[in-house]
Specification:
This protein has about 425 residues and is of the alpha/beta class. About 30% of the residues lie in helices and about 25% in strands. The protein is built from 13 helices and 19 strands. The strands form 5 sheets. A 6-stranded parallel sheet has the order 2-1-3-4-5-6, sandwiched between helices. The chain has a 5-stranded mixed beta barrel with strand order 15-16-17-19-18. α7 links the parallel β10 and β11. The longest helix has 25 residues. It starts with a strand and ends with a strand.
């Protein structure tokens, strides 16, 4: 059988797809839907729009005669409907993904919506990550927060940690297969260890000691979970000089409406402390949530300007069925789409400017980059030029001159000694490869 995996959503889903691929036996992975006998959809359900996109995709390829199998976060909310309407051949919940071979080879339609075990974590060790120079490493599953806009805790379950030995064994295997950068991911990685009496800082120290690993990147952290023990590891050489800390908003009023655990005053102190150690800082930010009045948004902008932010992942609020925000029982003001789009533009421009200032202020620093591959860029005179694309220790894009047309430098590390700064990237003028 020829199998195509279609992954929607976050890094955790990308990792889950790799787990499924590793548990195949005699199936062949193909690169596009047209070649496939079976299409496995690993779904996202973070918004109603995500559900609509998945439903449309399933309908399209079922109508095209493909056998479509449905899994991921959308199973709980739309799995039964898709199955009953014949839009998918089979449905299975997260905790069955390691049984993918028997599911794909079953002669009958399969519906496995209920989780196998409420505290399930995967046992699969990935032998390799095909075509990638870095690897996502899931360290935990689930979330104990109750943010008013978020559906994820209800589909991923409560926070639970992977065993430390499993994580370290996984990274050791991948380091022996040419992976030198790892990204720790999960639903809420700051909760790692709360159920096993361990701590993410201790885990990072042990990863730091693994031969072959040159950089450790972290997924999104919650500010309320960053404690003194975590702050003590910020001087580790292999830890990326960038943290992504999910604030979601900068107005105290909005944070209360969203039922967030963080407060702006504490966030400001935390960010200033980490930035003083030479870190760049990113965040998630929700725009246009119910109740974001003009006064509240203006307050948020003033507060945002105070934060030493360099990166942002902003998105316009999309009501999610089943969440507290969706029901809006407090009759909060609903923000028009055009207003939200203008606010999004304003916030993007602020952080873009902050990022460039950060790079200008740190231009004397040498950049350590991992080369990902080639990218075509138009810099001047509308002339398209091919460069090597990479990310530095501050999570900024760096382009390197390409001396030949092959891809032999993919996965190599380099030190950039001198570079020019552009709006969206740095352009290396001088670099040397390192082992």
């Amino acid at each position: 059988m020829k199998i195509y995996f279609k992954t929607f959503g976050c890094r955790s889903n990308l990792y889950d797809t790799q787990v499924m691929i590793s548990n195949l036996k005699d199936q062949i992975i193909v690169k596009n839907e047209d070649e496939a006998d079976i299409i496995v959809i690993n779904s996202c359900t973070v918004t109603n729009k995500a559900d609509r996109e998945v439903r449309s995709y399933a309908r399209k390829y079922t109508n095209a005669g493909k056998k479509v199998i449905f899994t991921g976060c959308g199973v709980k909310h739309i799995g039964r409907d898709l199955f009953d309407k014949g839009l998918v051949h089979g449905v299975f919940a997260h905790s069955y993904k390691e049984d993918i071979h028997s599911i794909l080879t079953s002669k009958n339609r399969i519906f496995l919506q209920k989780e196998k075990v409420s505290k399930h974590v995967d046992s699969t060790l990935l032998p390799k990550v095909v075509g990638k120079v870095r690897a996502f490493i899931k360290i935990q599953e689930g979330c104990n927060f109750a943010c008013s806009y978020c559906i994820i805790p209800s589909v991923r379950g409560n926070a639970r940690s992977f065993q430390e030995k499993h994580i370290l064994d996984q990274i050791k295997i991948l380091s022996q297969n040419n992976i030198s950068e790892v990204i720790l991911t999960g639903t809420n990685i700051g909760s790692y260890g709360i159920d096993t009496n361990t701590h993410i800082a201790d885990l990072i120290k042990k990863i730091h000691d693994i031969d072959g690993i040159k950089r450790i990147r972290l997924g999104s952290l919650e500010p309320s979970q960053i404690d003194d023990k975590f702050l003590e590891i910020l001087n580790l050489d292999k830890l990326e000089r960038h943290l992504h800390i999910a604030l979601q908003h900068t107005s105290p009023s909005m944070l209360k409406i969203m039922n967030r655990k963080n407060t702006f005053n504490n966030d400001l102190k935390l960010f200033e402390s980490i930035a003083s150690k030479g870190f760049s800082l990113g965040t998630d930010y929700i725009i246009g949530h119910n109740g974001e009045t003009t006064d509240i948004f203006n307050e948020a902008i003033n507060n945002l300007m105070q934060l030493p932010l360099t990166h942002i992942h902003p998105f316009i609020y999309s009501p999610r069925t089943g969440t507290k925000s969706y029901f809006n029982k407090d009759n909060l003001e609903v923000i028009r789409g055009d207003i939200s789009k203008e606010r999004l533009r304003q916030i993007n421009n602020i952080i873009k400017s902050k990022n460039k200032i950060f790079r200008e202020n740190n231009q004397e620093n040498k950049l350590k980059v991992l080369i990902e591959g080639q990218k075509d860029i138009v810099i001047s005179n509308n002339e398209k030029v091919t460069y090597l694309s990479s990310l530095d220790q501050y999570f900024n894009k760096v382009l390197l001159p390409l001396s030949n047309k092959d891809d032999i430098l993919k996965g190599k590390w380099a030190i950039v000694n001198k570079y020019d700064i552009y709006d969206d990237f740095n352009l290396a003028l001088d670099y040397r490869l390192i082992s």
